[in-house]
């Protein structure tokens, strides 16, 4: 027993490099039959993920991308989050991507995001994507958005009064995340926004961090914590949906009224009218996808806007002048005409 254990301990350091070399060579032979752009895919599974994530943490991702473009040109291959990836750079690449690539490009997401969020607008393709987009476009039409302007304005004012007023120094990004999270919860969950905001904020934060992670569920990893958070979020939102569904069936909300409801009730109304056939699980996943998609992008935009105002005093002064002008215009007596 002791001898076999000793042999295994001696052979293991030799076997690991041999296995890695075999996997690299096997992948190289597999891809050699394709006309691929220059570059390398790196170590199997890991690829360039660690170096890219490190650059993102250090806020040096622009230098990371420029170094690859300078080395391999505007088109190169890399491996990120376990997936072979083509890196495109430059105006021609932008036109190609945003023009749909001649019909050859299909929206896909990482395996981590598909596992965390499920079947949502972030992961749908084809007819399913068109069906969900149609429902979302109806929900986001101008008359629907106008309903939430006052609600958003009130949430922003409350947030500033509680977290900003009277403070000499604030950390913008966490506060911007809390603000955007509160607003998107109000839009998506309506009367249950406070419940979601108070009980699931930490879970949504863990879910957001897990999006950029390896889709391997090992204990104490970001992905594993994100999967646990996703399960708790899905359970709570499902309970909210079922309560709304019961209320809808009992006549608590008109099934013909799609103009005065939050996203949850709106989607349930559309389903009762036959406008879509998404099951409850898919509607829950789409609610999660909306929160994840709007939460992160909006908070980052707010943070950079505040940074720009802080670093560019002349921009801040112009903004103050325009706000004051707007206030003066709003104080004009009814019936008076302002000339531009």
Automatic annotation (TrEMBL):
Gene3D superfamilies documented for this protein: Cytochrome P450
InterPro entries the record matches: Cyt_P450, Cyt_P450_sf
Organism listed in the record: Oryza meyeriana var. granulata
SUPFAM superfamilies, sorted: Cytochrome P450
UniProt entry keywords in alphabetical sequence: Iron, Membrane, Metal-binding, Transmembrane, Transmembrane helix
Transmembrane segments: 6-24
Annotated GO MF terms: heme binding; iron ion binding; monooxygenase activity; oxidoreductase activity, acting on paired donors, with incorporation or reduction of molecular oxygen
One Gene Ontology term from the biological process aspect of the record: sterol metabolic process
Protein name in UniProt: Cytochrome P450
Keyword Cytoplasm listed: no
Keyword ATP-binding carried by entry: no
Family matches, as Pfam families: p450
């Amino acid at each position: 027993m002791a001898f076999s254990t000793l042999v295994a301990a001696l052979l293991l350091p030799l076997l690991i490099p041999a296995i890695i070399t075999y996997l690299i060579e096997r992948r190289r032979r597999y891809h050699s039959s394709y006309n691929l752009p220059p570059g390398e895919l790196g170590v199997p599974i890991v690829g360039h993920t660690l170096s890219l994530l490190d650059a993102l943490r250090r806020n040096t991702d622009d230098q990371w991308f420029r170094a690859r473009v300078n080395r391999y040109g505007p088109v190169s291959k890399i491996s990120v989050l376990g997936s072979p990836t083509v890196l495109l750079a430059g105006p021609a690449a932008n036109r190609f991507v945003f023009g749909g690539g001649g019909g050859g490009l299909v929206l896909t997401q990482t395996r981590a995001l598909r596992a965390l969020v499920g079947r949502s607008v972030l992961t749908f393709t084809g007819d399913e994507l068109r069906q969900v987009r149609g429902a979302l476009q109806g929900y986001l039409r101008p008359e629907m958005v106008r309903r939430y302007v006052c609600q958003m304005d009130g949430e922003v004012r409350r947030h500033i009064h509680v977290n900003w007023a009277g403070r000499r120094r604030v950390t913008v990004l966490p506060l911007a995340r809390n603000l955007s999270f509160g607003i998107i919860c109000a839009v998506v969950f309506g009367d249950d926004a406070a419940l979601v905001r108070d009980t699931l904020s930490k879970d949504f934060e863990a879910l957001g961090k897990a999006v950029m992670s390896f889709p391997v569920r090992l204990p104490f990893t970001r992905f594993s914590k994100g999967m646990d958070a996703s399960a708790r979020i899905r359970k709570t939102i499902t309970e909210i949906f079922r309560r709304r569904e019961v209320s809808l069936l009992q006549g608590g909300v008109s099934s013909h009224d799609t103009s005065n409801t939050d996203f949850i009730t709106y989607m349930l109304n559309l389903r009762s009218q036959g406008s879509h056939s998404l099951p409850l699980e898919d509607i829950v996943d789409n609610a999660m996808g909306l929160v994840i998609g709007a939460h992160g992008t909006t908070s980052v935009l707010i943070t950079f806007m505040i940074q720009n105002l802080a670093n560019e005093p002349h921009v801040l002064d112009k903004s103050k002048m325009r706000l004051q002008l707007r206030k003066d215009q709003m104080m004009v007596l009814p019936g008076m005409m302002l000339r531009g």
